[in-house]
Amino acid sequence: MARPADPAGGGRREETHHGGDMGTGRNTRTIEWLGDAVRLIDQTRLPRELVHKETRDYRDIAESIRRLEVRGAPAIGVAAAMGIALAALEHKALGLSRFRTEVASAAGLLNSTRPTAVNLGWAVARMLEVLRDPALGDPGEAVRRLTAEALAICEEDRELSRRIGEHGASLIDDGDGVLTHCNAGGLATAEYGTALAVIFAAVEQGKKIRAFADETRPLLQGARLTTWEFLQKGIDVTLLCDSAAASAMARGWVTKVVVGADRIARNGDVANKVGTFPLALAAREHGVPFYVAAPFTTLDASLGSGALIPIEERDASEVTDIQGVRVAPRGVSVYNPAFDVTPSRLVTAIITDAGIFAAPYEETLFRDRRGLEA
Ligand code: MRU
């Protein structure tokens, strides 16, 4: 199969900004469609440097998702949709039937990159619906429609995040200490975020909030990305080791927890970054409300409970090494699940783009895919 020309005429194009003024006045869009290429922030390099990658090759997008250069449930859905649009451009000279086969195969590759976040499969399914539309006349028309669909998915995600922020901010009081885990901010979405959107919106409303970010081992999304986002917005944030969260609650510093989600089952069980479940247990022990913020694209109505959610297990080196430095002895066995499942009984409420929902989630949130106000 012919590979498309790369914008840099070789490997993927990279643009790097180093140093202490990170973010000020620079392009911090998580992911962008450039007309015939995709530009995304390589999140593995943050906060040391802000590096943008550009590619016309959907295979690079699949690799970026696998390597967590682009990550976070909604963002990988957007990336996969744009990847499918790139595949469509690459194959536009084929006849319609071959075109459909090649683009569907690219969609399969993108869909196979990470198993837990349902937003990925949701975005791929939405793109495939366009690809399979019997009314499609030729590949040219398919390219136009697939590109428009990918852009719509990206644009809609921005809007969903804003709505989550608006709804969720009503749960945050002036003077709250709000703890979050992993990164559920603008970097994990097209823009603004889910859990972080709630905190950002509360701050925008003038509430005085003390933000806390778990470092989030093994890959430190909290330490590297969440603190970066807060500081970019000029919001003070306190970083803590995951294991210090219960102590911060015991001291009364943390009065609310807000996390994102990768998949929510019909009974309200929530898959999110590993470490979320122990955080919910600690919150229950201390009487701290535990909120989950997610768009409707994170709901999986096909699964009755969290036990059915596929949990990604990643390479042992993510645990034995920290930022490329070996910290564990050679020969050690490793358990490295990327996500865990928090039982819905530990979840105080789920904040979505359509409002705030409490249990029983099957009858509130899942009554239709967007749910009804609880
Ligand atoms: O492995 P990651 O970094 O993709 O995990 C991300 C998370 O667990 C987020 O909390 C979740 O995707 C919600 S993002 C709005």
Give a quick set of tags describing it.
7-stranded mixed β-sheet; alpha/beta; 2 domains; 4-stranded antiparallel β-sheet; globular; disordered N terminus; Rossmann fold; binds 5-S-methyl-1-O-phosphono-5-thio-D-ribulose; Four Helix Bundle (Hemerythrin (Met), subunit A); 374 residues; single chain
DSSP E strands, number: 17
Could you estimate the helical fraction of the residues in percent?
Answer: 25-40%
Please tell me what the overall shape is. globular
Structural class: alpha/beta
Q: Please, what is the CATH homologous superfamily of the largest domain?
A: Translation initiation factor eif-2b, domain 2
Q: Kindly, what is the distance between the CA atoms of the first and last residues, rounded to a whole number of angstroms?
A: 52 Å
CATH class division of the largest domain: Alpha Beta
Overall pLDDT level: 93
Main-sheet strand order equals 7-6-5-8-11-16-17
Residue windows where pLDDT falls under 50 for at least 5 positions: 1-11, 19-23
Can you summarize the main beta sheet?
A: 7 strands, mixed
Secondary structure tally, helices: 10
Bound molecules: 5-S-methyl-1-O-phosphono-5-thio-D-ribulose
Which range does the strand content fall in?
A: 15-25%
State the CATH architecture of the largest domain.
3-Layer(aba) Sandwich
CATH names the topology of the largest domain as Rossmann fold
Order of helices and strands: EEEEHHHHHEHEHEHEEEHEEHEEEEE
What is the number of independent domains? 2
Computed Rg: 20 Å
